[in-house]
């Protein structure tokens, strides 16, 4: 009997030891989880503070761009050297990083929303003349049939459900099993081209380099003193078949030092003077741009933020109208 009591005591001690070990293991695991949670919360709070600081730096880039544009627009547009402010990266050192910002002319593109125009009652309707211009641009940049694509884009944004000649409304998209259908509203993001009938993703990408979406039904005012040879397809599309792309490149390269002093001097170029344009087409050429796009990249601490901002300089007073963060500076969304 005495030997049995000894064995029972040893068993109780073993069970107690196991209990203690299990308890210690559970407490250790709990402590490790608490430490990990605290570390994660601290890191998350630090990241949030870092990203908040980056966003403030981005707003600072916008303020810098608005200040420079305001000063430039106070100068008479005739002969102003826009090359001194556009397409030149501004590098600004920060305490824990660097900010890079570039301002480009946001009017050197075809505003797809201008495929609509207001009728006498103020209602929006498709503009056939503008579709012809856009169709030429489509052909020059993508090789796709121009007028059908222009009609598809017009149907995407016009308010009715009646397809234009060669166009497509919601019924055609549903029949093709498309995931999206025309919203019948102006386009906010030129990337919407990729979802339209008649355009492959590659063609939509190429077209997005010369087309844009502005919050206006008016054609863009094109700053002739900011044109570069790569903008030739847009100029050729406006002037029509009488001005091939190569000839439009020659016109741009012939810009005098200091720029054209007036639009009439531009239109008097030997390659252009014999081409008849409508008054609306002539009114698209300007010495004072309306739209600008800011592309900025902020590197701060261990994080990076990129974005693009659309600036409207109507009446010479620049203001931010759209901001897209988290996109590559050359993303083409604006």
Question: How would you characterize this protein structure?
Answer:
This protein has 334 residues and is of the alpha+beta class. It folds into 3 domains: 56-107 and 291-325, GSPII I/J protein-like (Pantoate--beta-alanine Ligase, Chain: A,domain 2); 112-210, EpsJ-like (Ribonucleotide Reductase Protein R1, domain 1); 221-286, EpsJ-like (Ribonucleotide Reductase Protein R1, domain 1). It has helices at residues 2-73, 128-142, 146-157, 170-175, 201-207, 232-239, 245-253, 263-267, 279-283, and strands spanning 90-94, 97-105, 110-111, 116-118, 124-126, 211-212, 222-223, 285-286, 291-300, 303-312, 319-325. Helix 2 (128-142) crosses helix 3 (146-157), helix 2 crosses helix 5 and helix 2 (128-142) packs across helix 6 (232-239). The longest helix is centred in the first third of the chain and has 72 residues, at 2-73. The chain is elongated, with a radius of gyration of 30 Å. The mean pLDDT is 85.
């Amino acid at each position: 009997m005495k030997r049995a009591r000894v064995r029972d005591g040893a068993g109780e001690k073993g069970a107690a030891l196991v209990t203690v070990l299990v308890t210690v293991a559970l407490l250790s695991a709990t402590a490790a989880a608490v430490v990990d949670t605290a570390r994660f919360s601290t890191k998350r709070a630090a990241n949030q503070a870092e990203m908040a600081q980056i966003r403030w730096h981005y707003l600072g880039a916008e303020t810098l761009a608005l200040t420079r544009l305001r000063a430039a627009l106070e100068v008479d547009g005739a002969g102003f050297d826009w090359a001194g402010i556009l397409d030149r990266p501004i590098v600004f050192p920060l305490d824990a990083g660097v900010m890079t910002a570039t301002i480009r002319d946001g009017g050197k593109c075809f505003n797809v929303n201008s495929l609509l125009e207001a009728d006498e009652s103020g209602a929006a309707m498709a503009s056939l003349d503008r579709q012809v211009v856009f169709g030429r641009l489509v052909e020059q940049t993508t090789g796709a049939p121009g007028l059908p694509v222009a009609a598809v884009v017009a149907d995407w944004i016009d308010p009715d459900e009646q397809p234009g000649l060669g166009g497509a409304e919601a019924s055609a998209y549903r029949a093709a099993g498309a995931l999206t259908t025309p919203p019948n509203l102006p386009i906010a993001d030129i990337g919407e081209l990729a979802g339209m009938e008649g355009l492959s993703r590659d063609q939509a990408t190429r077209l997005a380099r010369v087309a844009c979406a502005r919050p206006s039904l008016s054609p863009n005012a094109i700053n002739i003193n900011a044109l570069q040879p790569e903008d030739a397809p847009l100029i050729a599309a406006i002037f029509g078949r009488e001005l091939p792309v190569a000839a439009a490149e020659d016109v741009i390269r012939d810009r005098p030092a200091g720029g054209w002093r007036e639009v009439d001097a531009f239109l008097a170029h030997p390659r252009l003077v014999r081409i008849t344009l409508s008054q609306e087409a002539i009114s698209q050429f300007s010495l004072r741009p309306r739209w600008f796009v800011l592309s900025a990249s902020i590197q701060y601490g261990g994080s990076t933020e990129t974005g693009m901002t659309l600036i409207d300089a109507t009446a010479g007073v620049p203001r931010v109208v759209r901001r897209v963060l988290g996109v590559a500076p050359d993303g083409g969304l604006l």
